Amino acid sequence: MSDALLVHDLVERLTDWLARLMPPGARRDALIAVLTERFDAVDTTVTGADCVAIEQCAWTVSRHLALAFEPGGTARPDTESPGWPDPDPAVVRARAACVSQVRRLADGTCLISVDDLDAVSLAQPYLDAAFALAHGSARILLDLRANGGGDPATVAHIAGRLLGDTPTQLSEVVYPDRRRQWWTPALPSGTSLRQPVAVIVGQGTFSSGEALAYHLQARGRVVVVGETTPGAADHITPIRLAPTVLAHLPEAYVIDSVTGTNWEGVGVVPDVVSPPGTVIEAAVAALH
């Protein structure tokens, strides 16, 4: 008898984990139902194409679910959620916590590009240095077009530098068994930046990258410029479903403390729509 992993077996494991991880409610039930209906009778061996098809089916309900097919994988499937591994400080230092650019334009605009959100304990010095270089600028462009997400604490840290010195609640994250609030940190008086700010977004802005843009937009602090983002608002966790399949699965949803909702499935919608080729110029013009 073959011990090959079949598609319906993989989806059964996936839906079992979704039932364990996600908060009870209509979205969880709909996600499990759509996956079960589509793949319950598929008894072929799992391939990379199958993982893509399962992802795309799931995205009709939950945009933040991913499967990585690893044909040579030998690791044991998880029986308990392992959580995220600790970040490697050397890797974070080598990439300057994904602060890829800080540049002063000819008109006095400060352009800051942050391409991911590393753990705040490691990222803070690089972010603080970037914002220190923004002092005295005429305006700030925060470019998140390549930001695939990361630590919500880093979202709060960056938001605090733009929203003010006093702590501000950004969101509440709802898990099956608890809720967690995220607030901006208290800052020394005069630390936060007061200049006009544009946040630049696009199809590469994802997850916590979208959260940063959404929370700032909801509070009227920034103008969002660019293209609508993919709309992945759930918090996720890694789960190995099989030796050959590693999943990132939703475990919580976000409620913005101003809007009472989030960007799941609809994305962060720009205040000013602009194609990538002219988005810097559009963002500067939006602040004049």
From TrEMBL:
One of its GO terms (biological process) is proteolysis. Pfam families: Peptidase_S41 (PF03572). GO terms for molecular function: serine-type peptidase activity. InterPro entries: ClpP/crotonase-like_dom_sf, Tail-specific_protease. Residues 84-275 form the Tail specific protease domain. It comes from the Bacteria. PANTHER family: INTERPHOTORECEPTOR RETINOID-BINDING PROTEIN, RETINOL-BINDING PROTEIN 3. This is Tail specific protease domain-containing protein.
